[in-house]
């Protein structure tokens, strides 16, 4: 039930009545199940038009590398085309014991959000447009269980991006296009410290044959 609940929250958020209706489960059972999910956090996906990696800029930093030398930025030269909301692979998480049971033979499923879905009327200006954009949520990232590190991977290689879908810790993915028309893929993993070394080694191996592959590791 917990896994199904997480997948449904990706789509409709923390709405008890709607979750109860769509899953055909009484409200009190939904509430009980939600309370049993350790470290549950729900983050709405709002419009991000461009993304980049580079030097620290205080106003638009998403993640900062643990070395403090670079950051993932919410503004830049890469135009966002699609956002994929994975929210991990809840079927491979033991909700009762707060443990992962990875199956690296199965890809994570996802909710796809084309950036065009966030478009608002161009005639709307000022505070009203800001309010509409703030309410313009198309999906919700669901985090659960003990996590310690974010790993953001930026690559031009679609195969690398696709391979990351086998990790149970994959959080979201962004497809973007550079000013020159080159496709760039951003993926984020959110994982416990015990899996950090094996994941980093696996990503390093994947990136060996890639034309460009950059990783950024940051603390929770």
Low-confidence stretches: 120-124
> Radius of gyration over alpha carbons?
18 Å
Mean pLDDT: 88
- What's the architecture of the largest domain, going by CATH? 2-Layer Sandwich
Major sheet, described briefly?
8 strands, antiparallel
Total number of beta strands: 12
Question: Could you say which overall geometry the principal axes of the C-alpha atoms support?
Answer: globular
Strand content: 25-35%
Order of helices and strands: HHHEEEEEEEHEEHEEHE
Describe the structure concisely for a colleague.
The protein is built from six helices and twelve strands.
Structure report:
By secondary structure, this protein is an alpha+beta fold. The protein folds into two domains: 1-36; 41-219, Alpha-Beta Plaits (2-Layer Sandwich). It contains six helices and twelve strands. Strands 2, 3, 4, 7, 9, 10, 11 and 12 form an eight-stranded antiparallel beta sheet that branches. It has a two-stranded antiparallel sheet with strand order 1-8. Helix 1 packs across helix 2. The model is unreliable at 120-124 (pLDDT under 50).
Provide the descriptors you would attach to this structure in a database record.
single chain, alpha+beta, eight-stranded antiparallel sheet, 12 strands, 220 residues, 2 domains
Could you outline the blueprint of secondary structure elements for this entry?
Elements lengths: L1 H11 L3 H8 L3 H10 L4 E5 L4 E5 L6 E4 L6 E15 L7 E2 L4 E2 L10 E4 L11 H10 L3 E5 L5 E7 L2 H6 L6 E8 L5 E9 L4 H12 L5 E7 L1
Antiparallel strand pairs: 1-8, 2-4, 3-4, 4-7, 4-10, 5-6, 9-11, 9-12, 10-11
Helix pairs in contact: 1-2
């Amino acid at each position: 039930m917990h896994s199904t609940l997480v997948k449904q929250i990706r789509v409709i958020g923390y709405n008890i009545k709607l979750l109860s209706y769509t899953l055909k489960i009484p409200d009190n059972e939904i509430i009980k199940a939600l309370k049993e999910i350790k470290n549950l956090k729900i983050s709405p996906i709002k419009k991000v038009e461009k993304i980049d990696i580079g030097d620290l800029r205080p106003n638009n930093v998403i993640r900062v590398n643990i070395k403090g030398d670079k950051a993932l930025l919410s503004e830049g030269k890469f135009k966002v085309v699609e956002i994929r909301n994975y929210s991990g692979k809840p079927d491979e998480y033991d909700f009762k014991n707060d443990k992962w049971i990875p199956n690296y033979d199965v890809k994570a499923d996802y909710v796809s959000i084309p950036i065009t879905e966030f478009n608002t009327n161009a005639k709307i200006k000022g505070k009203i447009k800001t309010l509409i954009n703030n309410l313009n949520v198309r999906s919700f990232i669901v985090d659960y269980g003990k996590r310690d590190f974010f790993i953001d991977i930026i690559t031009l290689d679609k195969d690398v991006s696709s391979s990351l879908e086998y990790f149970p810790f994959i959080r979201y993915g962004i497809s973007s296009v550079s000013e020159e028309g080159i496709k760039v893929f951003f993926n984020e993993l959110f994982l416990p410290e015990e899996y950090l070394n094996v994941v980093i080694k696996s990503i390093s191996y994947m990136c060996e044959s890639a034309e460009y592959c950059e990783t950024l590791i940051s603390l929770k």
